[in-house]
Design goal:
mainly beta; 1 helix; single chain
Amino acid sequence: MNQLFDELVQPRETGGPLHWTPVADVIETPAGFVLHIELSGVDPDRVEVTVDGPLVVVAGQRPYPADGAAGAHRIERPYGPFARAFELPTPVLASSQRRRYEQGVLTLRFDRG
């Protein structure tokens, strides 16, 4: 568990701190939990989701635009690696994970464990 949190602060891939934190909503339902995470520009197939009891960690990376930032006049959207950790009130089943990516929002559904 400590290693997981260490990687959130200093990921191995970059050797440096995370660049941004996506906003999210966590909703409890009778069956479990739904997480809505804003990830526009992120390939949903490259988002890693780790579940350990009530802890859900979502991590990935928003790549820099193909045309680069060399001639940019303004860069407001954050790029690079991200991670969010959600401590839910009860454990969830990792095997129950269902994903949907629509209009830049990744929706994750989990059943209670």
